[in-house]
UniProtKB/TrEMBL annotation:
<dbReference type="InterPro" id="IPR052798">
    <property type="entry name" value="Giardia_VSA"/>
</dbReference>
<dbReference type="InterPro" id="IPR006212">
    <property type="entry name" value="Furin_repeat"/>
</dbReference>
<dbReference type="InterPro" id="IPR005127">
    <property type="entry name" value="Giardia_VSP"/>
</dbReference>
<protein>
    <submittedName>
        <fullName>Variant-specific surface protein</fullName>
    </submittedName>
</protein>
<dbReference type="Pfam" id="PF03302">
    <property type="entry name" value="VSP"/>
</dbReference>
<dbReference type="InterPro" id="IPR009030">
    <property type="entry name" value="Growth_fac_rcpt_cys_sf"/>
</dbReference>
Length: 421
C-alpha cells in the first residue's frame, strides 16, 4: 500500500530507491532507476577503469533543480557543472572536464585517473591510456580512452574522434579532415595478444602473449602452456611445454606449465604437470606417475609434486631418507611414515628420526639405525628388578643407619676407657 503519492509516483518507493541508489553508488556501483528524482541515475554509460558511473541523471523537469553527474554521481547542486540539460552537463568549469555527460574533477577519483590537469573546464594533460580530442572546448568531451571506439562529435566544429580497439597507450591525432569520418587516435601500445601496426592493433599468433609482428616466429612472450624458443631477451616461436619436436628447444613430457631456459639445446623448466602426473624437481624437473624411493606424492600450493621424505615443511619427517604415504584419514601430523633415517635413529612408530633412543628401546642396526622396543620378557624383568630395588632401598638405608649408630656408641665408650686419667 502506498502511503503517499506525489506526481503520480509512490513517495515511499521513490525514497527507498533513492536510498538504495546512493548506497550502491557509494560502493562504486551505478544503478539505473526510472523516475524524475534528479539524484538518481537514468543511464550508467560512463566506464572508468572497469567501473560504471552515471552518464545521465533523471530529469526533474525544472531547470533550477535538475540533476547532472559530477564525478559520476547525480547531484542537483553542481558547482562545476554550471549548465545542464535533460540530466547531463553541457558546460564544465574550473579544474574539471567533461566526460560522458558529466563533469569530473582532477583532484579526486575517478577524474584524476583520466586527466592530470584541467583549465576552464577542459582537460589539458591526459593520464596514460587517454587522449585529448583536438580543439575540444568546455562544452565538449575533452578526454577519451585510447581503446574507446565510440565516436564523439565536438559541438564547436562538428568534427569526430575515436579511440583504437585493444589500444592501451596513444597520442592525440591530427585534427580531423572533415565532419563525416572520425579521426582515430595514434596508438603506441596494445594490450596483450596484439601489436601496433599502422597506428592500430593487430592480433598476434594464437600462441603468443605479446609479439612484434604477425607469424608464429615473432612472439616476445607466450601464453600459459607454452615457452619461448629464443635466447633471453629475444623473440621466436612459442612451443608447447610438453612438445619434444623442436630439437633446439625441447619441452618436458606430460608438462602443462613451464618456463624457457633461454639457452638453445636446454630443455624448458617444468613448473606444473598434466593431470595424473607429479612434478619431480630433484635434478632436471620431470613429470612422473611414481615418485620413487625417498619421495612421496602430495599437493603443494595446488600443484601436484613429489616431495622428499625429509621435507618437514610439506608433510615429510626431518632427517627421513625413505618413507611410505599414510592413508589420508591418518594424516594428523606428517603425511608419511618413515622407514629409514639419513643419520639419526628411527623411532619405533616411524614418526621421527631421533638423536637418542627413548626409554624402553635400544639401538639396533649398523648403517640404518633404529630404536627397537625391548622384548616383553626383558621389560618384565626390569620392572620386577625396579620393584625389588624400590623395596630393598629403605631396608638398606635403615641397616646403614643402625651400623652408623653402633659405631658412634663404640667410639664414645672406647674413647672414655682409654682417655687420660
Amino acid at each position: 500500500v502506498c502511503r503517499e503519492a506525489r506526481d503520480g509516483a509512490c513517495v515511499e518507493h521513490a525514497e527507498e530507491a533513492r536510498a538504495e541508489t546512493k548506497e550502491q553508488l557509494s560502493a562504486n556501483q551505478c544503478v539505473e532507476v526510472t523516475g524524475s528524482d534528479p539524484s538518481t541515475c537514468k543511464t550508467c554509460g560512463a566506464v572508468i577503469g572497469g567501473t560504471k558511473y552515471c552518464s545521465a541523471c533523471n530529469d526533474s523537469g525544472s531547470a533550477s533543480s535538475s540533476g547532472a553527474p559530477t564525478d559520476g554521481v547525480c547531484t542537483a547542486n553542481n558547482a562545476v557543472c554550471n549548465a545542464k540539460s535533460t540530466g547531463v552537463c553541457t558546460t564544465c568549469t574550473g579544474s574539471s572536464f567533461m566526460f560522458k555527460g558529466g563533469c569530473y574533477r582532477t583532484g579526486q577519483d575517478p577524474g584524476q585517473t583520466m586527466c592530470k590537469t584541467a583549465v576552464n573546464g577542459v582537460c589539458t594533460s591526459p593520464q596514460t591510456g587517454y587522449f585529448i580530442p583536438p580543439d575540444a572546448t568546455k562544452t565538449d568531451q575533452s578526454i577519451m580512452a585510447c581503446n574507446d571506439t565510440t565516436e564523439i562529435t565536438l559541438t564547436s566544429n562538428s568534427k569526430k574522434y575515436k579511440g583504437v580497439l585493444h589500444c592501451t597507450q596513444c597520442n592525440t591525432p591530427a585534427t580531423a579532415d572533415n565532419t563525416v569520418t572520425a579521426k582515430a587516435a595514434t596508438c603506441t601500445a596494445c594490450e596483450d595478444g596484439y601489436f601496433v601496426a599502422s597506428a592500430a592493433c593487430t592480433a598476434c599468433h594464437s600462441s603468443c602473449l605479446t609479439c612484434s609482428a604477425e607469424g608464429e616466429s615473432s612472439c616476445k612472450s607466450c601464453k600459459e602452456g607454452y615457452f619461448l624458443g629464443a635466447t633471453s631477451g629475444g623473440q621466436g616461436k612459442c612451443i608447447q611445454c610438453s612438445s619434444k619436436t623442436e630439437q633446439n628447444w625441447p619441452g618436458v613430457d606430460n608438462c602443462a606449465k613451464c618456463t624457457s631456459s633461454g639457452q638453445s639445446g636446454t630443455a624448458a623448466s617444468c613448473t606444473e604437470c598434466a593431470d595424473n602426473y607429479y612434478l619431480k624437481t630433484d635434478g632436471t624437473p620431470s613429470c612422473v606417475t611414481n615418485c620413487g624411493e625417498g619421495f612421496f606424492p602430495t599437493t603443494v600450493n595446488s600443484i601436484k609434486k613429489c616431495v622428499s621424505c625429509g621435507d618437514k615443511t610439506n608433510g615429510g619427517i626431518q632427517y627421513c631418507a625413505k618413507c611410505s604415504l599414510k592413508a589420508s584419514s591418518a594424516r594428523a601430523g606428517a603425511a608419511v611414515t618413515c622407514t629409514e633415517c639419513t643419520s639419526n635413529k628411527l623411532s619405533p612408530l616411524g614418526d621421527a628420526c631421533l638423536a637418542t633412543c627413548p626409554a624402553g628401546t635400544y639401538e639396533t642396526g649398523d648403517t640404518n639405525k633404529a630404536c627397537t622396543p625391548l622384548p616383553h620378557v626383558v621389560l618384565l624383568v626390569l620392572r620386577r628388578w625396579r620393584v625389588f630395588l624400590h623395596r630393598l632401598l629403605p631396608r638398606a638405608r635403615a641397616e646403614q643407619g643402625r651400623r652408623h649408630h653402633k659405631g658412634h656408641l663404640y667410639r664414645r665408650v672406647h674413647g672414655s676407657l682409654h682417655g687420660p686419667l
